[in-house]
Structure formats: structure tokens, C-alpha cells
Amino acid sequence: MLCQCNCFFITSSFLNFPNHSRYVRRGQPDAGFPLFESESLKWPGFVEFDDVNGRVLTYSAQDSTYKVFDLKNYTLLYLVSDKNVQEIKISPGIMLLIYARTSSSVPLKILSIDDGTVLKSFSHLLHRNKKVDFIEQFNEKLLVKQEGENLQILDVRNFQLTEVSRTEFMTPSAFIFLHELQLFLTFRNRAVSVWNFRGELVTSFEDHLLWHPDCNTNNIYITSDQDLIISYCKADSTDSTSEENAGSINISSILSGKCLAKINTGNSNACKERKKAWKFRNTVSEALEDITALYYDEDRDEIYTGNRHGLVHVWSS
């Protein structure tokens, strides 16, 4: 999750602590504690919370420095200071450092997420004069896509290359890697798809049209078993109970693509809002407008949503 430094961060590690989630439920976000006050993180700097590895990555554009912190106690573990690093990608156990490309290749380094040790350095050949759409790393698999070219999936252990036709795999706006299933999600034009690392389409979703066309991943939650995706979606146009400005919260199976449940203006009795902490009340329709963040507390079986007005709603069955 990428956020600008002036945001109020609500991460799963925050919500999993009973004392912290109690402050959210009471409507007291100021009862939390500030983080990274010593860091200069204004744009294009950023903070990224990584629950899988238990790490936090910060970037200071002022001095071109990346820092890695422990997510448990926010202690600094190590830093990477190199002006030639263009981007860093995090996947389970490792970080991929992407350097400024040459005309025909892009230099890459794979680091241990634990201590920053360099595990492998190599260059990947590119088509000349073609823009790089993305470079992504997941475990031993490197995904590279250039404009108008096929998707390349490179196994960095043996450098075996798999290509997927550009007509089958079009450049998505975002990825989510599913480390438990060895699959990955792609988001493009409000649609979600599931792929494996052989470049094969595994799942298309029947009723999961995202609200935001550019895929705001803050509005998407994947359960810890990676069997469900919960997203803020466009309401079904055939639903006569839906309201124009209100979306829906859809819960779908990742492996089958089936929609298992949804929260919309037509089933407000099934999911209620807890609003005791607020001095004013919203209708269900109002609470389903302009959602900017979504989180599912798996222990309590509750969904938290935040909207552009700064309100947090809790939905429980």
C-alpha cells in the first residue's frame, strides 16, 4: 500500500492490536502514535507497509535514500542509498532494485529483505526504443513488459524465459501477488483477473467491476488465506435498489470468480453500521459513496471503510 506521508495510516498491523482498533471504533484517530517523524517523505517520497515480510519501506527523494524498518517495532534495519536506483519492488523474502536502463538492457539487483545482502546482480535485455510498461518480481519470477511487446516471465534461477502474447496479456494498471497460491491478480479497466506464472489465465470474475477505473488498491482486501477478494465496486446496473452515487462492497472467490456476497443499498439489514462514536449518522447509501479505503478484520468478521469525508464505518453481519 502506497500512501503519502500526510495520510493517517490504518494498516492491518494497526487494526490487529485491540487497543489501537478501539481508538478507531471510538472515532479517536489522534489516540494513535506518529511514525517516521525524522524522515523527509514528501512527494515523490513515500511509505509502503509490507505485511508479508513484516517490513516498512520509506523513500526520501531529498537524499535518494530507501530505508527498511521492522513492522513490529518500527526500528531501522538498513538503508539503500543509490541515486541510480529508479524503483524498488518487494516480494516475499526479497527486494528487487531496478536501475536506470541503457538503450538495450536494464540492470537489476535482488537483495535479501532481512538484511539487504545482495543475492544476485544481472541485466535483462530490452527491445531498443520501446518503453518499459512494468518490471515486477515475485520470488524467482521476473515479469517484464514493454510497450507493444509480449509479456516475458523470467526464472532468475536458471534464466528460463516464458513469453505470453501481447494480445492475451495487456498491460494492467496494478498487480497483487498471491504468495500462498503462487498466482497473481491483475487490474485493468475496472476488471480483475487471476494468472499463474506460466502466463495462463486462471480466473475471470463474474460480478466484480471495480469502482475506480485506475484501480485504487486501498479499496481492495485479500484475506490471509488468499481465497477471497473484497472490493469497492460499481453497483449492478440491473439492481433496481441501487443508487447512482453509491457503490457496493463485493466479496468474491479468487479461484472460482463467483460473487459470494455483497453489501449494497438493497441489503442494509444484512450489514449494519456502528456509529456510536459519531455525533451524526449516515444512511447506508451515504456510507457507500466515495469510499477511499477498505479493510476486513478477519478475527471480528467486520469490514472497515473510510470515505473522502474522513469518516470510518464498520460493517458487521
From TrEMBL:
Domain of life: Eukaryota
InterPro entries registered for this protein in UniProt: DUF7899, WD40/YVTN_repeat-like_dom_sf
Gene3D superfamilies, per the entry: YVTN repeat-like/Quinoprotein amine dehydrogenase
Classification via Pfam families: DUF7899
Residue intervals passing through the bilayer: none
PANTHER family hit by this protein: OS05G0482600 PROTEIN
Name of the protein in its database record: Transducin/WD40 repeat-like superfamily protein
Source species: Zea mays (Maize)
